[in-house]
Fold each of these.
Amino acid sequence: GAVVSQHPSWVICKSGTSVKIECRSLDFQATTMFWYRQFPKQSLMLMATSNEGSKATYEQGVEKDKFLINHASLTLSTLTVTSAHPEDSSFYICSARSPPGYGYEQYFGPGTRLTVT
Amino acid sequence: AQSVTQLDSHVSVSEGTPVLLRCNYSSSYSPSLFWYVQHPNKGLQLLLKYTSAATLVKGINGFEAEFKKSETSFHLTKPSAHMSDAAEYFCVVSEGTSYDKVIFGPGTSLSVIP
């Protein structure tokens, strides 16, 4: 099946710094990628939809200036957590939607665990 | 609007006994439905999906689910639980096949007792 990677798999940063998480679709081009956040023992919450070459669409309650999303190519989307604080500590998961001829479904990355100290 | 309810937050079964994880959905249009499994500190793995074809869907690792429109349900079953099945399971709904937005259920934690 299709493979989506995330880098890094885990990261620890100090409060006030920024962290960038990469999401790559390895064997297909994804015009649309999605970013989710998962708190411990909770479900995934959609943060934003990332469209290649255009601005991301954020879900209600998600600060777009804090969670910067860039989808500069058909295989890469990045999420930058700016001025991170301990409450931003979470498990961040991305997904990439394959094109119509390749099943047109979401494939999920392995996730990135962010810890802000 | 879409929504997903997983009726049990936690299910515990003995190894070798059947597994039933319940899921009910609400959708304005013809939904696509999925079950994903997440092992501790891992990403999501697709178990199976329903996209308006056969109502009984067979997935990986012996899991299957039946789409029942009249009951708005998509319960996940497995005849015989294995220790490696212990994980978190998410029922997911997407309206139509565009996958523009999917909604995750709250999850069911499955424990398997040896």
Amino acid sequence: GAGVSQSPSNKVTEKGKDVELRCDPISGHTALYWYRQSLGQGLEFLIYFQGNSAPDKSGLPSDRFSAERTGGSVSTLTIQRTQQEDSAVYLCASSLGLAGPTDTQYFGPGTRLTVL
Amino acid sequence: AQKITQTQPGMFVQEKEAVTLDCTYDTSDPSYGLFWYKQPSSGEMIFLIYQGSYDQQNATEGRYSLNFQKARKSANLVISASQLGDSAMYFCAMRGFNKFYFGSGTKLNVKP
């Protein structure tokens, strides 16, 4: 398909385990974003990649969270030593990466993470 | 500081009626963009409509229109002829200084 894809759609893990969440952006989109959404809440910004620039990691809640983007395309969000408070839906979005106001984000379906 | 505010946690509207969802913003970027997204219970965020800060006309996309009042820093979403499928969370977002900011959302319930 032509949209943003994320995998897995659901992930259940035990406290203390590491998890990896994957995002495949729309082809040609140079900007990629990760957000976290707890049940019934708004979006919490995590990290932003733009082309080859250093990522904006200002939203990562702790050093247990990290993300990388290989080849300017697919991104992986890694959560180490998961805690129950990490349970949420993790949303990925991509955009063309235009400078200025017109850059529209398109979202993937999300990964629902449950930490037992 | 860049900020987006949605003051209506929940709204009800009768099917076939129009509804306005409020959004106010604050930014020092003279060139900014305003966006509305819909999030149904399935969880996916769906882009609805965009308004640029220099656009003279209010944006429209089908039954969606954005009531942009620049001096008041408001960007309200108007949904005409509400349908049951419009029941969802709606998020207002702003792009300023090349960053995105999201509001806390409004949950819209359309009653038959």
